[in-house]
Amino acid sequence: MRKLHARWSVLADRVDRATPARRDRAVDALRAFAILGVVLGHWLVTALTEVDGGLHGVSPLARMPWLAPVSWVFQTLAVFFLVGGHVAAAGYGSARARGVSYGAWVGQRLGRLFRPVAAVVALWVVVAGGLLLGGAQFDTVRTLLKLVWSPLWFLLVFAALTAATPLVARLSPLWPVAVVAGVDVWRFGFGGPEWIGWVNVAAGWVVPYTLGAAWSRGAFQRRRPALLLLAGGAVATAALVLWGGYPASMVGVPGAAISNLNPPTLAAVAFGLAQCGLALLVREPLARAMRRPRTWAKVALVNLSAMTVFLWHQTAMMAVTALGLLFGGGLPGLHTAPDSADWILTRLLWLPVFAAALAVCWSAFHVYEKPRAPRDRRPSRIVAAGTATAPRREPREPQEPREPVVGRAAEVGEMSRA
Question: How many C-beta atoms lie closer than 10 Å to residue 254's C-beta?
């Protein structure tokens, strides 16, 4: 254990020294927080119970509605879109300054998103076919596929917004907020068709994305705008839940008449505004925390494989659940109905097991998240975890300061082994 700790300390110091001083580490910390929030939230509010020899999805929020505040902590997608808009807008501006075409820029960014997706989709097509041929119940297979693939909607929206960055980067967030409000009034106030709600899938997430783009232009250098976002979003959310008829849970609950997330409602957008305001307010404390090498190295590791963690965390949970069935099933917190405080306590004990299974998935599939090797294979030197530049021969344009920590650096391999 001491030897492992010593190796980690050495590696953390190397990553810290290799990170450019211009890098905004608070941005990476917010991204890591958003991804881990989604992962832990899914592990806590999604249960697979054994019914008549098959697995069925159940949410503890449906049986214990007093757990709704848990969704306030772990529904962090607004922060992810905030950071995504910030990084994309800054990156596109930097690319234009260096003479990089829009096609090259967007192709690189979308490639980072969809290469890992192809791996998880291909594996689950094979798994689903094998389960059906092996006699598994159709409802069980459908439940598993829904858990794996339903979160991918967010990637499609994120990819569309990334591609549209030149158009939406300077859009005022007031316009998409107005669209969401209008759609909700039509749906809930005038009995409009349910399908119109899916307009909010785009409009709802444009709001934090445009806030991130405004952040990249320096709109939140002072604390007052962020305070207004936090206070206004919190007050609006409370009013909509208490008097507007919106549910308190910020994630979907099976059987509920209204879901705040699928599609996003005005309450979810207001809650996202509050989250974004809080995220912008904690930038300075996060930046100070990231100056500690060991803390920064952990954040760098999460960012290194953010997409792999997001795409495979449900698979990890389901693998543990399925293996538990081999030991007779009925394991508390894993196969039992989520209807009591005892279930919550035992579920917390399963989280390290889910994390271990996710680590196995990461070791097998994180390679798909690595960027493709450049055609120009001239020698390069490492300047950051996952960022390489050619030997310095003349002044260069500064690199994008807030790109995710991803790449092929030697530190990456050592980090994964530490």
Answer: 11
